[in-house]
């Protein structure tokens, strides 16, 4: 008996790059005190008003099978949100509600990729991207970016890798780098999509966390509405990570087929979760700003701490809940530095290599602990990096 290659090769049979994270969790289980700056999990929980709406919906009986495409209320709410934010006409027929953003990413790739096709994605990348593409039966092909170019994906590199490709996956504001793609970058992406007849899958789950610059959805660019699938989620904007409620927004024909896919896979999202999501989206910007505020504040703290030293570099921290720190001056790659930091100071960060090869020599720091501990941990990281850099210089 054997398993399918599709399932056994999701990570190409190797590590998924999260070994440091798993080691830190084992240390915690063994009773060690570890400062975790690893995953993108809010240090505040889902707002009480959202939970109350969820509880009320469940108690009123919305616990049976919900409509597979999503409730009309939530689909209309998501459509109105996208239309307001982008100016692109959007109706419920452009929206499929999914069990979280990850499910939406998978569904989008199943919609546009046949077995043997090539799905492009940007390196550095969120850890699940290549496995998601492989899970859809396609070949995952990374597009390298450069730290010296603020990890902006350039049209020439995308075009050079596009032979055999049918799709391109991008993410702005970006996890892991914290970079927000510029208009020029996105216009270059759109140009290649037109020239190479690519579907664009745009992961926009961090669109409410922009600290510097402006989030531009590529769906708004000329000729891109009909070839773009937007992935969104309640997880980051409303601290509803465990509720698993996301969406795909795209052309009506695509959504119709994705509804058929959902009928044969997820069979929808619980109605009381959808009612809570509808409540949250209709609660207004104040709630969204309250959830984003700690990350905006800690980004400012980080810039203060980093301004007092010259060993650790900061990739432009324009959005999302992460910092990408350049530790190449230490002579270590990201994995080596992260392991040494965990061993010596019990601080857990993600190696840049966890997210591909382009971020080698970097670490990703999640801004997900309280302000004082965050500033102290970041100060320790900088001090430790300076010690390693001095030791390297003396050798």
Automatic annotation (TrEMBL):
One BP annotation, GO: amino acid metabolic process
Cited InterPro entries: Aminotransferase_I/II_large (IPR004839), AspAT/PAT-like (IPR050596), PyrdxlP-dep_Trfase (IPR015424), PyrdxlP-dep_Trfase_major (IPR015421), PyrdxlP-dep_Trfase_small (IPR015422)
All copies of domain Aminotransferase class I/classII large, residue ranges: 36-379
SUPFAM superfamilies: PLP-dependent transferases
Cofactor: pyridoxal 5'-phosphate
GO molecular function: L-aspartate:2-oxoglutarate aminotransferase activity; pyridoxal phosphate binding
Superkingdom classification of source: Bacteria
Keywords carried by this UniProt record: Aminotransferase, Pyridoxal phosphate, Pyruvate, Transferase
Protein name: aspartate transaminase
Pfam families: Aminotran_1_2 (PF00155)
Enzyme Commission code(s) on record: 2.6.1.1
Source taxonomy: Bacteria, Pseudomonadati, Pseudomonadota, Alphaproteobacteria, Rhodobacterales
CDD domains, per the entry: AAT_like
């Amino acid at each position: 008996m054997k398993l399918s290659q599709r399932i056994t090769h999701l990570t190409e049979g190797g590590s998924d790059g999260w070994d440091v994270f798993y080691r830190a969790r084992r240390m915690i289980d063994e009773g060690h005190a570890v400062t975790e700056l690893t995953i993108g999990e809010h240090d505040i929980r889902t707002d009480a008003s959202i939970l109350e709406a969820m509880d009320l919906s469940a108690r009123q009986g919305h616990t049976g099978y919900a409509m597979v495409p999503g409730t009309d209320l939530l689909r209309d709410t998501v459509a109105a949100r996208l239309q307001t934010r982008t100016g692109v006409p959007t109706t419920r027929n452009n929206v499929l509600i999914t069990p979280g953003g990850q499910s939406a990413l998978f569904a989008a790739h199943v919609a546009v990729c046949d077995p043997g096709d090539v799905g492009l994605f940007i390196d550095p990348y969120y850890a699940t991207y290549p496995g998601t593409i492989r899970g859809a039966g396609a070949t995952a092909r990374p597009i390298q970016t450069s730290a010296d170019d603020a990890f902006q994906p350039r049209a020439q590199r995308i075009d050079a890798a596009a032979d055999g490709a049918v799709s391109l996956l991008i993410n702005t504001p970006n996890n892991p780098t914290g970079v927000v793609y510029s208009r020029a970058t996105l216009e270059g992406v759109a140009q290649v999509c037109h020239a190479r007849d690519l579907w664009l899958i745009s992961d926009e789950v961090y669109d409410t966390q922009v600290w510097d610059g402006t989030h531009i959805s590529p769906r708004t660019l000329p000729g891109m509405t009909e070839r773009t699938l937007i992935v969104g989620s309640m997880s980051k904007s409303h601290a509803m990570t465990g509720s698993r409620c996301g969406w795909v927004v795209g052309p009506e024909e695509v959504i119709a087929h994705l509804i058929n896919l959902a009928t044969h896979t997820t069979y929808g999202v619980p109605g009381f979760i959808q009612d809570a999501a509808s409540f949250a989206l209709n609660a207004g910007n104040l709630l969204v700003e309250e959830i984003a505020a700690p990350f905006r504040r800690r980004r400012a703290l980080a810039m203060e701490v980093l301004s007092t030293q010259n060993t650790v570099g900061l990739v432009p921290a324009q959005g999302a809940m992460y910092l990408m720190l350049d530790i190449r001056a230490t002579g270590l790659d990201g994995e080596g530095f992260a392991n040494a930091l965990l061993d010596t100071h019990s601080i857990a960060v993600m190696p840049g290599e966890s997210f591909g090869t382009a971020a080698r020599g970097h670490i990703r720091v999640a801004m997900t602990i309280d302000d004082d501990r965050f500033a102290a941990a970041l100060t320790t990281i900088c001090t430790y990096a300076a010690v390693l850099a001095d030791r390297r210089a003396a050798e």
